[in-house]
Records
---
Amino acid sequence: MATIYDVARMAGVSTYTVSAVVNRSAKVSPELTERVNQAVVALQYTANEVARSLPLRRTRTVGMLIPDIANPFYAKVVRGVGELLRENDYTLQLASTYNSPEQQAAHLRVFRAKQADGLIVFFSGGDEAVLRGMVKSGKALVFAGRTPATFEADCVVAENRLGARLATAHLIEKGHRRIANLSGQMMFTANIHRDEGWRAALMEQGIEPREAYLGVGDWTAESAERLMKGMLALPEPPTAVLTANFLMMTGALRASRAAGLRCPEDLEIVSWDDSDWLDVFSPPITTVVTSSYAMGRHAATLLLERLADASLPPRQVILQPELRIRS
């Protein structure tokens, strides 16, 4: 790629003159301007946006980390973020951590090297030192969906306790007493709150939560399938299960079919998150829904406000869940 030095050499001017013409930051004679523009065209020179932004400390780019690009929930979150950033002349850079703290740390280092102005992060666990360091260096940070338990920052989350209570109460109303909970890792506040909601709904109806019915996986179909197989082998297996996301729902379905069970007749499943194709899915799956698109828009809004005023106190947006009954 051509550099500013190449352009200056071809045009017979200083690099300051090239910068002044390209950035329109100072007056340059028509003759020199023409020579610089001809050299720019001939060399196909593109100014380095990162270098140009250093004096202003802004690149108008935002880094975003999602846990798993294969999960359709995150597609609408990214769309909500991307649309609002685009409306405000920011560029979104996206990366997937695949729920790996090591991948998260690696991507954060890349975003820091690229001078991203801010970050929107679905937390994947691990050492928070990199995140804290970026905040101290002036980077705007917003957590979405999944937040660390001890890190105070802007965030957009679902009302997870309420969602779990709605789902569990729905299953109890349908006559279930042995209700399992297939959860993600308990290092995340979302899963801690869902566990609390599941337990509260059971205890309100005089049902003691069974620890054997709590399965802690890693958000994947494989972990849910393994946990569900173990529960179905119990002397008193669950007759219903709440799964943490779409992927864990598919794992629970695989395990039930391998055991020769029918859904929802033998095992009823309620999942978190939603998709358009679930309306035609067989068996029909009831879901706890929070708008992923709204989560993205709110996260981008908080980030833009933080970029405009770094002195704002940490803010939290809580999205209310809806139980979408299909079975």
---
Amino acid sequence: NMGRTDLIHDETATARSILKKQGTHVFQVLINKRTGRELFRVQVGTTEGTYWVYGLVREADFNGDGIPDFSWHGGDDTSDRSLAVLSSPNGYRKVDIEATLRGEWRRRFPSDPPDKSLTDDPIFSDMKLVRKSGRLLLQGIIRYSDISRSDGSKDYEHLLRVKEQNFVYVK
């Protein structure tokens, strides 16, 4: 499950975290407990920031390659970010969960709902990575209100499944 938790996980079975400051940016860096090498890092704010909650939500082998993968969440009072961090032959790759679901929505429904109502206040829930027939999928529900209707707003809910080739990766 990719959902938000209380984010108390500073470490998992294979990784521990440290904070690093680089200039005005602050990063959570995940370190392999066995080797001491950096697995990946995520920017969690700036030195000017006063409130930010972040951390590992779960460790599991999501993609089935025998190497631990992670789900990560961070946010403050103005925004949030959920990542699936997947192992690959060249290290870890970070999947932006919301951007991936938004991209799939636009591929499937290019004109419904209007972009304005989707980008103003969509709600993503029940996000999880699913492995089916050896393939990895991101699954999630998107809820939104269509405020462009002349008879008032109407709420919608759609289940989206995204193939790995359509994941949106971030640095």
---
Amino acid sequence: MNSFVITPRNKKEYKFLFDLMNKLNLKSSELSKETVENAGLLLLMNQADRNKTVRRETIMKKLNS
């Protein structure tokens, strides 16, 4: 079964969605902001083109600027 993530805009929306899920007996899990960011980063990393290479000098130049 697929899942989805809902991010409420404020505490009022959070409470509404939380109560709604409980009323509908839907299984839910709360994710921290850090966990959501890590999942997004993982998704981007999986989509990255791993066939291209970048010279070390180019990377160091970007890091130093």
---
Amino acid sequence: MKSIITLVTVLGVASFSLAADDAAKKPEEGKGKKPDMAAVFAKKDANSDGKVSKEEFLKGSKDAAKSEKQFASKDKDSDGNLTKEEFTAAGKKKDK
């Protein structure tokens, strides 16, 4: 009986530890934390050429029109690609 209790305790601790590891890997959504834009850039840069094309940027977008406007506002040199610097630059807030 003691070995069963020990096994259950060990499994419970292991399960808690795995859940904590997962929580550490995923940023909390809606908690005001900003995403790591360098990591987002690397994920969007599907062909790893150091640039994010318009097609790469729009892939998976739920609102294509909004995403196209975002792309255009970030593409400062209008070459149709976003460099890491353009991609990670913070957008300017509009004054109301």
